[in-house]
Design brief:
Largest sheet: 5 strands, mixed
Radius of gyration: 22 Å
CATH architecture of the largest domain: 3-Layer(aba) Sandwich
Order of helices and strands: HHHEEHEHHEHEEEEEEHEHEHEEH
Number of strands: 14
Number of helices: 11
CATH topology of the largest domain: D-Maltodextrin-Binding Protein, domain 2
Length: 291
């Protein structure tokens, strides 16, 4: 049983989804299934309950997960010790939004590559609401994320920027905002909202406190998708101002005045605390802390 096999098992034990793990680990679903069957044969126990709809760990699977995490943790520490006196090499996986990729990362990565040119940076972009989940599933070594209300104790967070949340509408379609005297009628004005994430949580809380039922036109993944639909006049949106400022659509948008003031986004690097023992990740963290 090799390190790759243990990594595949660990990912599946976190995602509980064969397709998701196969895509993240660059292996076909059928090959992944054969790997798990081989592990179960070697262990002599079923490690997963699985049917067409769900995957769950068995009791033996939970025990084997602890074993796999212990071995992989020891392997990471060994790799770190062996490279302490050598030039850093290997791969560093980062996940962030498109906006973060060209607003927060450039200076950090430029300095990192100047000092550690032999480390290969693997960058994935997507919905920032998925950042913490990808970190916990070990789909990434480091993510750029908004600081959640409660950060898991196993994670470490390094603040890089702060951005207020702003309500936006298209300059071309001002009529999309429905006014009731001098206030927005939130139950009539169509809204484009993030399907999940911190901005959605904060806005949902504000609506609940004010006993309002919003007129939700669409739920989307990612702030860039909100901008696209707002630009088409489908409704108003809520995004971090940093995203608006860096968008090619910024000139097409207006920040709506006299709207609820929600807590700002605190944006930064996030990783698992244990991962800071990895020299590649530790080096990135130290450079980012000085930017």
């Amino acid at each position: 049983m090799d390190i790759r096999t243990l990594e595949l098992f660990r990912h599946l034990s976190n995602s509980l989804h064969f397709t998701r793990t196969s895509q993240a680990c660059h292996i076909s679903a059928s090959a992944l299934s054969r790997v798990i069957q081989r592990v179960e044969s070697e262990v002599g126990e079923k490690l997963f309950f699985r049917d067409n709809r769900s995957v769950e760990l068995t009791y033996a699977g939970m025990a084997f997960k602890k074993y796999a995490e212990d071995v992989l943790g020891r392997w990471d520490r060994l790799q770190g010790e062996l490279s302490e006196d050598e030039v850093l090499q290997g791969e560093l996986s980062i996940y962030c939004s498109v906006t973060a990729a060209y607003s927060i990362l450039p200076e950090i990565i430029t300095r990192y590559r100047a000092v550690h040119p032999q480390v290969q940076i693997r960058l994935h972009t997507g919905d920032p609401a998925r950042s913490i989940g990808r970190l916990m599933n070990r789909d990434a070594d480091v993510v750029i994320a908004a600081l959640p209300a409660k950060l898991q104790t196993s994670l470490d967070f390094l603040t890089m920027a702060e951005s207020p949340l702003v309500f936006i509408a298209s300059n071309r379609y001002p009529e999309v905002v429905i006014w009731d005297d001098k206030e927005i009628d939130w139950e009539k004005t169509p809204m484009i909202l993030a399907d999940t994430g911190l901005s959605r949580e904060r806005l949902d809380l504000w609506f609940a406190r004010n006993k309002l039922v919003p007129n939700i036109y669409s739920r989307v993944d990612g702030h860039e998708a909100i901008l696209a639909l707002v630009n088409l006049g489908c409704g108003v949106g809520l995004i971090p101002k940093l995203v608006l400022d860096k968008s090619s659509l910024a000139k097409e948008m207006q920040i709506i005045p006299d709207t609820p003031e929600l807590d700002p986004y605190e944006i930064g690097l996030c990783t698992r605390k244990k991962s800071l023992d990895n020299p590649r990740i530790k080096a990135l963290w130290e450079i980012a802390s000085r930017v």
